[in-house]
């Protein structure tokens, strides 16, 4: 009996730890940081103590109205309140227990992904046109609202559209398949169209502020597609280094958001011919764009290719804990589903 109590006690303790996960920067007022400065941080998407720890001094100084002296004071105050970042492996394993998976609509694809799209991580799907990247994105908008395995409760989603291919009407037949009310379902999808790569980055500040405002409500952030605007904004060879630097900043922001707010990040990506491939006898001479920066930022990468008819084949491309294998799924009016044969 004693032991049982101890377990309960420990669980309560862990729940408390979870709260500290969302420590609001307003707490810094007690440390002598004034409300006006905290507002400036929030408008830059930095809303939690952890958010401050995750932001470089340089970036803090770049926020309008934050001088170097102020930045030092803020960093110091955050260090006092927050923990240094160390935890035991046991504590870390408890944190990992809050990780959830969002179902894709196809049980085969879920299996391939180890049960679905994972939170606190970036999942990237790349493939040629019509391979189902946008259809998968639409399906996830609906499926993330459904309760899932492992006690997943369902939640809201943010959709950042860089190619103008998001269609709310497309979500309706998908909702019908899962018996969701259209209006309630649409109300849970927060949509923004990004027009430039810079705008795409600015939207992430807004997203972070929104996630902070409604803690635990949003479960998924979709960017369809991650690279399209970078391709337009940085076109010449001479701009490649600049592009990769900006891309790295965006991905690092996405990674931080996924960890800070425990959400799944799903991004799509295009492909391009690999100029080096003709030399290496590769079977598939195309590869995802974005180079090593994107390759390293994505926790899980799946490549999509066409199969027969509506069928598509997904392959794990790069994952820390999943073997390289394939799954066949189909695109239907009700969204992504299992292939019939
Ligand atoms: N309502 C629907 N029912 C069945 N199939 C559909 C439906 N809507 C679209 N599709 C199929 O989805 C495919 C297009 O997929 P999608 O738009 O996701 O491709 P994509 O990978 O995003 O391509 P791109 O690189 O051009 O963005 C087409 O083959 C189309 O027939
Ligand atoms: Mg698309």
From TrEMBL:
Family annotation (InterPro entries): AAA+_ATPase, Dmc1, DNA_recomb/repair_RecA-like, DNA_repair_Rad51/TF_NusA_a-hlx, P-loop_NTPase, Rad51_C, RecA_ATP-bd, RecA_monomer-monomer_interface
Cellular component terms (Gene Ontology): condensed nuclear chromosome
Domain of life according to the entry: Eukaryota
SUPFAM superfamilies: P-loop containing nucleoside triphosphate hydrolases, Rad51 N-terminal domain-like
CDD domains, per database record: DMC1
Family: Belongs to the RecA family. DMC1 subfamily.
A GO molecular-function annotation: ATP binding
Subcellular localization(s) per the UniProt record: Nucleus
Domain RecA family profile: 98-271, 278-341
Its job: Participates in meiotic recombination, specifically in homologous strand assimilation, which is required for the resolution of meiotic double-strand breaks.
UniProt cross-references to PANTHER family, sorted A to Z: MEIOTIC RECOMBINATION PROTEIN DMC1_LIM15 HOMOLOG, RECA/RAD51/RADA DNA STRAND-PAIRING FAMILY MEMBER
Keywords per UniProt: ATP-binding, Cell cycle, DNA-binding, Meiosis, Nucleotide-binding, Nucleus
GO biological process terms held by the UniProt record: chromosome organization involved in meiotic cell cycle; DNA recombinase assembly; DNA strand invasion; mitotic recombination; reciprocal meiotic recombination; spermatogenesis
Protein name: Meiotic recombination protein DMC1/LIM15 homolog
Quaternary data: Double stacked ring-shaped homooctamer. Interacts with BRCA2. Interacts with the MND1-PSMC3IP heterodimer. Interacts with RAD51AP1; the interaction is direct and stimulates DMC1-mediated homologous recombination.
């Amino acid at each position: 009996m004693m032991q049982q109590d101890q377990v309960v006690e420990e669980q309560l303790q862990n729940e408390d730890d979870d709260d500290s996960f969302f420590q609001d920067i307003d707490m810094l007022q007690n440390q002598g940081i004034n409300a006006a400065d905290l507002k400036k941080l929030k408008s830059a998407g930095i809303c939690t103590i952890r958010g401050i720890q995750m932001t470089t001094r340089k970036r803090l100084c770049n926020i309008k109205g934050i001088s170097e002296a102020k930045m030092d004071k803020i960093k110091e105050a955050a260090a006092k309140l927050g923990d240094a970042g160390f935890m035991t492996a046991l504590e870390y394993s408890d944190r990992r227990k809050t990780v959830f998976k969002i179902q894709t609509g196809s049980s085969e694809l879920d299996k391939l992904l180890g049960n679905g799209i994972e939170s606190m991580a970036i999942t990237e799907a790349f493939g040629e046109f019509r391979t189902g990247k946008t259809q998968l994105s639409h399906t996830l908008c609906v499926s993330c609202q459904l309760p899932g395995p492992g006690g997943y409760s369902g939640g809201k989603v943010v959709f950042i559209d860089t190619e103008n291919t998001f269609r709310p009407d497309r979500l309706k037949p998908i909702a019908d398949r899962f018996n969701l009310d259209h209006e309630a379902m649409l109300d849970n999808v927060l949509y923004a169209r990004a027009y430039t790569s810079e705008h795409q980055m600015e939207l992430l500040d807004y997203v972070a502020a929104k996630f902070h405002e409604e803690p635990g409500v949003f479960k998924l952030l979709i960017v369809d597609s991650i690279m399209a605007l970078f391709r337009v904004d940085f076109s010449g060879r001479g701009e490649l280094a600049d592009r990769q630097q900006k891309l790295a900043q965006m991905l690092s922001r996405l990674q931080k958001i996924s960890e800070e707010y425990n959400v799944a990040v799903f991004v799509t990506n295009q492909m391009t011919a690999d100029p080096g491939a003709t030399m290496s006898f590769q079977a598939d001479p195309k590869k995802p764009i974005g180079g090593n920066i994107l390759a390293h930022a994505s926790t899980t990468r799946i490549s999509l290719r066409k199969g027969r008819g509506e069928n598509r084949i997904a392959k794990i491309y790069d994952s820390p804990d999943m073997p390289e294998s394939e799954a066949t799924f189909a695109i239907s009016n009700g969204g992504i589903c299992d292939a019939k044969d």
